[in-house]
Amino acid sequence: MCCTHSFEDRISQDKDTTPVDLSGIKGMKFFDPHVHMTSRTTDDYQAMADAGVVALIEPAFWLGQPRTGLDSFRDYYSSLIGWERFRSSQFGIKHYCTIGLNSREANNEALAEQVMEMLPLFVYKEGVVGIGEIGFDDQTAAEEKYYRAQLELAKEAGLPVQIHTPHRDKKGGTTRSMDIALEHGLDPYMVIVDHNNEETVKEVLDRGFWAAFTIYPFTKMGNERMVEIAKQHGPERIMVNSAADWGISDPLAVPKTAALMKIRGISDSDIHLITYQNAITAFAQSGQINEADFTAGGSAIDQSQRFEGNTVLRGGQQPRIDKNSIIIS
Amino acid sequence: MVMYNYDVDALRALFKNILTVNVPADVLNWLQQKGNFNTAFVLVPRKTGKALLQISELEAQELEAIIPGFSLTGWSVDMLARAYLLLELDETNTEEYFRKIENLFLAAEVNELVALYSALPLFAYPDMWVKRCAEGIRSNIGNVLEAIMYQNPYPQKNLDQSAWNQLVLKAFFTGKDVGKIQGIDSRASKDLAYVISDYVHERRAAGRDINPSLWRLVGPFIDDKLFEDVKWAFESGVYVNQKASALALSQSNYPAAEALLSSQPKLKTAIEQKELTWDSLTLEY
After folding, report:
1. What is the ipTM score, two decimals?
2. Where are the domains of chain A?
3. DSSP-derived secondary structure letter, A241
4. pTM for the model
5. Residue A303 contacts B, CB cutoff 8 Å
6. Rounded-to-integer distance, Cα B139 and Cα B45, Å
């Protein structure tokens, strides 16, 4: 989730105009395990496909403002497994999602109760690879109540859990999130702790959880810091994501971080683990990821996609427009 | 209101036979258990896998005899298993039956939508699903549209004229193969031909190309106004358009149409000898 930052901040820090050079990672495949595509444009899908992103996970989150009724939750979850999945497929990117009640909205208890009743209808859907993103924001009693309830749901459904760690009191909140997960008997190998930083990573890894890092300007990790973490901790159980949303964020964070890792001397096999394979290993425990769906020549091999002849559906064949031309035809 | 407009018991038996050779015995047993319907419907692919359905020539013929126009060609195992579950629903309470299926649509994932819309011709109370079908046509999800448009006998049998026209126009707008729409010729109408004529004028004004299959729906209704459109295509200098408009001219008894077609004897002969047909043209386009 994004935080507040002013436009002036951006101007002052945007001065390095070095062109993006992704040539070092040409031909590599990437998996972005946390990106909110509903708040992004088709241009982003195109750019991600061009940069080698072959699959992604869209965690359920809030909409920048609270929802006030059950039906808007239902329509949102429904769009994650419906329209957004199709939109992504048009660019040859396999779209998965995690489903959950996010922490901010857990504080509206009357509504949260109804959402909890509805969740089982969605968590067993095809391509739902976990319960997420759940956890703490303000660390209120209501947040804890629904975090616990959703851990139980994950256990029952045999799904991994994607934990959002809080911006404020991050270190304490991260420790507490893990304590509670263990208290509910979850295997730490089924839990992906997200939005880590230099201060939290050691404990997360030491306790056997997966450590995800969000490369997000100003508020979360920068990718130079990420390179240092990878050098220090190695690739095991570490993954990066963009968490791109409607804030100033970057849907190419994963390929850009891979490119920087390459330049800074991290091995190809470690880059592969951190920017692709580890996320798949963690979330494929849901039984809902078939790597062949996004590796065979870049086109989804899904027998349920029974119709042939629709070129739009196959391997990123959306028509191209020339962005540098003033002519729009 | 009729419940089923076909022999549902025969279809249930046939589906069971087909499933027997396509899924292991324990999965077939699971499908036949009366558990929670919603959960079972969602869980189907985890149990059955998503392999392409194996179906014998004999079974295909039986199916055609039970519901003419309905086919399982290209279906995956999970789609059939879901259709099988839908057939097992108790249809005696109309409202309850409608609510159960409608709720599946409201929370459906893409593959579920495809399975549900593909199964429209199998539902009890066929009249009851007209609005749902029209809603599906409003979708922008490509494979959902194809589930309704291709090898599906429901729309041509049940949609009113305006919903049918929407289906056909949506097919053109989204680049579908209109030749695969059941009833594309039998449900053609003057009304639709005029809407298509307007659409062609828009495309011409925008300088965009025109799907030659459009003329298939204009040909039988050629009058003085439509004749001008077909004549434009015939003389456009684009060979595929010329061939399409020739086919359209051959569908008409309008005197000027016959005369225009005769001006290109080679095309006329090709059409008479079935060397040039709408299907061969589609392949070319």
Report:
1. 0.82
2. 24-287
3. E
4. 0.87
5. yes
6. 23
